[in-house]
Amino acid sequence: MKTLKVNHESAALIRARKRHSTWRINDDKDLHVNDIVMLIDQINPISPATWQEIGKVKITQILEKQLGKLTQHDIGSEEELISLEDRLLIYRKYYGPQIRSETPVKIVFFTHEEPVGPVSTQDSMNSLKAYKLFTDGGSRGNPGPSACGYVLMDMNDAIVDQDGLFLGVTTNNQAEYQSLKLGLEIALKNKAQIVYCHMDSMLVINQMKGLYKVKNQDLIPLNRTVNELVTKFNKVVFTYVPREHNRRADDMVNKILDVQAPKTIKNHPN
After folding, report:
1. Domain that includes residue 138, residue range
2. Are 14 and 20 within 8 A, CB to CB?
3. Per-run averaged pLDDT (10 residues), the chain, 270 residues
4. Both 114 and 180 in a single domain?
5. 148, 137 in Cβ contact below 8 A?
6. CA 204 to the chain's CA centroid
7. What is the DSSP letter of 171?
8. What domain count does the chain have?
9. Are residues 137 and 229 in the same domain?
10. Is the peptide bond preceding residue 221 cis, with omega within 30 degrees of 0?
């Protein structure tokens, strides 16, 4: 039987009957309308032992179109069509920099034929457990006494956890990365599957998106560590926000520095 592999986030939506399509790039499978195929949930993409069968589906439509020419009408009402810029970022992450707006994409639409086992509503919700994460880092001196802070919120903006950490003497950009690292670690402890990260550091956001190269030798290991953390989630979205929209995390940083910075300066007068 033919198979189609989908990521864990999509699999949860398919199990919950909230999605009836999958997007394919560089897909040479011989698929046709009315084919019966088995969907595979790639729980951990690099560990085939974790993959699970979702169930059999029947293909009802196959749409092939350039990535940049897709419209909301093409994909239907099940999901919101994200911007072309974000589409390119996502697919370049998986398929490489050769992805362009002219790259053909195949959207396979289907109906469920034979689900594998009962679908647990709680499992579906847990697999889609999403949070908003606001992080900030600051250095008084750059380099100088530094701190990082985070605020983890649920999707209804209720605060789940917030805290910060004094970092000693670092640069501002190092502190920004440390805040993101700390926030993602806390999100993991809260069993997050999806995290929407918000920061007022354009540098860090664009480096995490792959738009900027990481050239500073002190930031390379931090960037690598954060990217390794990202792989532990099903989806992580990075968004730049102005400082006024990141006030809670910024306040956390300043409260820590108000206490710790004078002590650090006193102990290191030079």
Report:
1. 129-267
2. yes
3. 85 82 85 92 79 90 93 82 85 84 93 59 54 96 95 92 96 98 96 92 92 92 94 89 93 94 64
4. no
5. yes
6. 14
7. -
8. 2
9. yes
10. no
